[in-house]
Design a protein that fits this description.
Layout (H helix, E strand, L loop, with lengths): L6 E7 L3 H12 L4 E4 L16 E3 L15 H12 L5 H11 L3 H6 L4 E2 L12 E4 L2 H16 L2 E3 L2 E9 L2 E9 L2 E12 L8 H8 L7 E2 L8 H8 L4 E2 L5 E7 L20 E4 L20 H6 L6 E6 L14 E3 L2 H8 L3 H14 L34 E13 L2 E2 L6 E3 L5 E7 L17 H22 L1
Helix pairs in contact: 1-5, 1-11, 2-3, 3-11, 9-10
C-alpha cells in the first residue's frame, strides 16, 4: 500500500515514457519514488503507448540500426524541421545522449526489432521497439515495481504548490478522493494540453471540433497551466502542435499510430474543393509527416483527401481503415464527396506537369512537376493506373508545444531566470525547449528518455543533499 503521509524523496507527475525514465533512474540512485498516473492502469503510459521508435545517434551499424547517424547530420535534420527554433545546447546534449541510452533501456526490459516494410526509410536513424510503445511502457512499469517505485493510478495532480520557486506540496485527487502529497523534489512529466479542447479553442476557435486527438485524453494541461500561473517561465508557441494527417474516420481520442496515414508523399492531397494546397513531395516523410496535420487544420472544414493509383498503393503503411477504392477518378470523387469534374481537372493538370525521372521510394528522387503551383518536388508520378484509391484526412493532434523552460539539469526555470529549488521536468511538458516547431520521427521519445534520465538523476541527487 502507498503511504501518502510520508515525504518521498522524489515525486514524479505523469505515467508515460519520460515519467517512467525519471522514476526508475531516481530509484536506481537510491531515492524513494512515488509516480502518479492520471489514467487507470489499463490506459497507463500517456502518448508513449502509441509510439514505436526513438531516434538514436550511432557511429556504426547496430543490431537494429544500419550504417551510421552522426551528431552533425542529426543536428542538421533538427535544424531543417525546426527552422532554427531550438536551443542548440539542449538539443546537442540530447542528440549525444541518445547514443548511450539503449543499454539502459534494454536493462529495463525494452526490446528492439529491425525496421518493418513501410518504415525502411528509418532503418538508419530510428530504433524500433519490439511490441511497440505499449510493450516499452509495460517493461518500464515492471522494472519500476520490481525495484520499489510506488505507483498510483487514477490519480490526477490538480496543483503543485510553489513558494518562491520551491514545491511545498502536490494537491491530488486519488480515485475520487482529495489528498496532499509531499516530496523533497518533483519531476513534472505530465505532457501538454492537447486533450483540453477548451484551451486549444482559445487559439484555433471552432476548428478544434474537427481535430482528432490521436493520443491520450488525459493530457489536459492542468499541471502545465498551474505552473505557468505561478511564475514558471514558458517556452514554445501555444498555437503550435505536433499534428499528422490522420484518417478522418478515426475516433476523437486515443486512436494511436494505427490511424495515421503515410500515403501523402506518393499521392496528391486535395481539400474539400478538390484543389491541391501544398507540395506533397517536399522532403522525406519522417521529416515532414508532422506538418500535415497543421496544413489540413488550415483548410476549409479541416479536411483533405489523399488520392493515388494502383502504382502507389503498396508503397505506404495502410490505415486501420480500408482505402476508398474506385475504377475511375469520377467514381472515386463521388465516394469521397468531392466534385468529380474538379478532381478530374486537378489530376489532369498534375499529370500534365509530371516530368520524366527515376522513381525511388526510399530517398529524394528526381521525379517532379514543372509549371505547377504548388509543385510536387519528389515522387511525382502520373495518377493514371486504375484502380484509384482515396483516404479522407483530418488533423491528428499528438502534443502541444507550449511548455516550461528548463536548463541542462532539467531544472525548471522561473520567469526571472532562477532555477526552481526542487522542480524538474521531462517529456512533452518541456519538449518546446528543443522542438520549437516541426518534428523529426521518434525525436519526442528521445527527448523524453534523455531528459527523464537527467531529471531522475538530478532530483535524486538533490533529495540526498
Amino acid at each position: 500500500m502507498v503511504d501518502l503521509t510520508r515525504t518521498y524523496d522524489v515525486l514524479v507527475v505523469g505515467g508515460g515514457n519520460a515519467a517512467l525514465c525519471a522514476a526508475v533512474t531516481a530509484r536506481e540512485a537510491g531515492a524513494s519514488v512515488l509516480l502518479l498516473e492520471h489514467a487507470p492502469k489499463a490506459f497507463r503510459g500517456g502518448n508513449s503507448r502509441h509510439t514505436r521508435n526513438f531516434r538514436a545517434m550511432h557511429e556504426g551499424p547496430t543490431k537494429v540500426l544500419t550504417d551510421s547517424y552522426l551528431e552533425d547530420e542529426y543536428w542538421d535534420d533538427l535544424l531543417r524541421v525546426t527552422g532554427g527554433n531550438t536551443d542548440e545546447q539542449l538539443a546537442r546534449m540530447t542528440i549525444r545522449a541518445s547514443a548511450q541510452v539503449t543499454p539502459w533501456m534494454e536493462a529495463c526490459g525494452v526490446r528492439f526489432q529491425p525496421s518493418l516494410t513501410g518504415t525502411l526509410s528509418l532503418s538508419r536513424t530510428n530504433a524500433f521497439f519490439l511490441g511497440g510503445g505499449k510493450a516499452l511502457v509495460n517493461a518500464y512499469y515492471a522494472t519500476a515495481e520490481r525495484i520499489g517505485v510506488d505507483v498510483l493510478y487514477d490519480t490526477e495532480v490538480r496543483a503543485l504548490r510553489l513558494d518562491d520557486g520551491f514545491v511545498r506540496a502536490a494537491e491530488i485527487v486519488c480515485r475520487g478522493f482529495p489528498e496532499t502529497v509531499r516530496a523533497k523534489c518533483v519531476v513534472a512529466s505530465s505532457g501538454g494540453f492537447q486533450g483540453n479542447l477548451d484551451w486549444m479553442r482559445q487559439y484555433w476557435g471552432d476548428a478544434v471540433d474537427n481535430f482528432v486527438i490521436r493520443g491520450t485524453p488525459y493530457a489536459k494541461g492542468v499541471v502545465l497551466k498551474n505552473l505557468l500561473d505561478q511564475g514558471v517561465m514558458p517556452i514554445g508557441d501555444p498555437t503550435q502542435f505536433h499534428a499528422v494527417a490522420l484518417d478522418a474516420r478515426s475516433p476523437k481520442f486515443d486512436g494511436g499510430i494505427a490511424t495515421r496515414l503515410d500515403s501523402v508523399p506518393f499521392s496528391i492531397v486535395v481539400n474539400k474543393d478538390g484543389k491541391r494546397f501544398y507540395d506533397e513531395g517536399e522532403d522525406v516523410w519522417p521529416k515532414r509527416y508532422a506538418i500535415w496535420g497543421r496544413l489540413i487544420a488550415q483548410q476549409p472544414s479541416q479536411i483533405a483527401y489523399s488520392v493515388c493509383d494502383a502504382k502507389a498503393f503498396s508503397l505506404f503503411m495502410p490505415s486501420v481503415f480500408p482505402a476508398i477504392r474506385a475504377d475511375t477518378l469520377g467514381e472515386l470523387a463521388q465516394r469521397l464527396g468531392l466534385d468529380a469534374a474538379v478532381l478530374q481537372d486537378t489530376v489532369a493538370q498534375y499529370n500534365a506537369a509530371v516530368q520524366p525521372g527515376t522513381f525511388n521510394d526510399r530517398s529524394l528522387d528526381d521525379c517532379r512537376t514543372d509549371g505547377l503551383t504548388p509543385p510536387k518536388t519528389h515522387w511525382a508520378r502520373r495518377i493514371d493506373e486504375p484502380p484509384f484509391y482515396g483516404y479522407p484526412l483530418r488533423p491528428g493532434i499528438t502534443f502541444t508545444y507550449l511548455g516550461v523552460k528548463v536548463n541542462e539539469q532539467a531544472r525548471v526555470l522561473m520567469q526571472d531566470g532562477r532555477p526552481s529549488a526542487n522542480l524538474f521536468a521531462s517529456g512533452e511538458i518541456m519538449a518546446g525547449n528543443i522542438l520549437g516547431r516541426g518534428y523529426l520521427a521518434g525525436f519526442g521519445m528521445t527527448i523524453g528518455t534523455v531528459f527523464g534520465r537527467i531529471a531522475g538523476q538530478e532530483a535524486a541527487k538533490h533529495a540526498r543533499n
